[in-house]
Amino acid sequence: xxxxxxxxxxxxxxxxxxxxxxxxxxxxxxxxxxxxxxxxxxxxxxxxxxxxxxxxxxxxxxxxxxxxxxxxxxxxxxxxxxxxxxxxxxxxxxxxxxxxxxxxxxxxxxxxxxxxxxxxxxxxxxxxxxxxxxxxxxxxxxxxxxxxxxxxxxxxxxxxxxxxxxxxxxxxxxxxxxxxxxxxxxxxxxxxxxxxxxxxxxxxxxxxxxxxxxxxxxxxxxxxxxxxxxxxxxxxxxxxxxxxxxxxxxxxxxxxxxxxxxxxxxxxxxxxxxxxxxxxxxxxxxxxxxxxxxxxxxxxxxxxxxxxxxxxxxxxxxxxxxxxxxxxxxxxxxxxxxxxxxxxxxxxxxxxxxxxxxxxxxxxxxxxxxxxxxxxxxxxxxxxxxxxxxxxxxxxxxxxxxxxxxxxxxxxxxxxxxxxxxxxxxxxxxxxxxxxxxxxxxxxxxxxxxxxxxxxxxxxxxxxxxxxxxxxxxxxxxxxxxxxxxxxxxxxxxxxxxxxxxxxxxxxxxxxxxxxxxxxxxxxxxxxxxxxxxxxxxxxxxxxxxxxxxxxxxxxxxxxxxxxxxxxxxxxxx
Length: 574
What we know:
InterPro entries: Alkaline_phosphatase_core_sf, ARSB, Sulfatase_CS, Sulfatase_N. The chain is an alpha/beta fold. The chain has helices spanning 2-16, 27-30, 75-83, 96-105, 134-140, 211-225, 249-254, 261-286, 323-326, 353-360, 377-382, 455-459, 486-502, 543-552, 554-570; strands spanning 51-57, 85-87, 90-91, 144-150, 169-173, 184-186, 192-194, 197-198, 201-202, 232-237, 293-299, 330-333, 342-344, 348-349, 390-396, 419-424, 427-431, 466-470. The strands form four sheets. It has a ten-stranded mixed sheet with strand order 9-8-5-4-10-1-11-12-2-13, sandwiched between helices. Strands 15-16-17-18 form a four-stranded antiparallel sheet, with helices on one face. The protein has a two-stranded parallel sheet with strand order 3-14. A hairpin with a 5-residue loop joins β6 and β7. The radius of gyration is 23 Å and the shape is globular.
């Protein structure tokens, strides 16, 4: 009882002292920078297609940027956003693969079969090969296309690789989580391998270089070797600030006063990434690209709160359909924007970048059917109304069904045990289990208490399967209106039914033992042939045969050991 009393006191104290009354419209945090909000300075004329730089960060929380009132230093991102257009009604997906797939295809997860979880390293699965990707459309428009960073859209056969999906060059990792220095990734006990690739080859020689620096340097090299007279698209998918929490120690030293160790390391990684963006911007100017460029910055999902991230004052975290999981940091910086230095509240979703960027590139969208995204450039550049009025956050039929959900609770038209979420206009509906429903203040205290984080979920979430919020009036999702407005609930459930009728079957195959890095020279990479399908049952070799292959790969393990040892000796690793 004493523990619960103390827990309750902590939550009430936070509420009493105003921690949850963060001013959504506070000028110092998200308001326009321009003295004249109606400023309409004319941009340079579009004499040729613009250079496009798309920067995607990994697991950066909504609160973790300077202009959202963060304690983390992001001067470059703050300046770029202030001089461009901040997107304060911008939505992404709650986890890695879904956001990346929707960016690359312009389609909701339910239309690519990737509506459940992420693509695991050992799954014979990847972005459907029948999808025409964003870089492929830009190639058609005459662009040189390059990717640097994290792929996480599958690699079980070569056709799935970035260089087969529209990118002329690629330097980065194929899986979702690697060491920032050694580039090793473990997908379970004794299932470890190296994951840094140059094109379709393993980049063994790059081990030991901090990935954030390595990726920024590669972007500069690409720009230096290309002509600014020819359009270029560079997709920079930073590994930062996903775990493991690693940063050069000089960045950690800046945050030595932070009591929470995880937050301290995380903050260092964010600031390091900010400086990498500074170097990329500098390279754009140095090599003559900047005046005809469009820089898009986006996070991929909400921050992971137990790994140093913060989505304050939003509810929830990475992996949830609360605002803290799906409302992203986003802005566009470009000399070509007509109305700069302002904040846009136009509704924008990550699927919108596909048609928006292809249109900017003067590409052809007439032969692309079934896009879920909209061209939002007029809304961003000119301040016009967004063509988007609703967002399907997702429908995941495989996620654990909510204990208290039923078809009856869904007016006989929708099983509310199914995890789903949709926004229509100012209304947002969630069904099933949307994930941890907590509000977590920035982790600035030493040993910040975590026991109360799940308290609301235990007392509220487990006995419900339907939530309704007026997200415009209540962006923190504090007031559930599902009982007061059953008419709105029913309307939004009908929209879920509509979308569900268009969904294709979930692609989530069982893991295949043939994917083990030991069978691939110690590195993660393609293992299936061109003729193998997603249901391939290969890899069921005899134990004798598998042991022979493992013996042949003993040198891989020895090489990995010396690589790690060399990295630890040469790098300033924390």
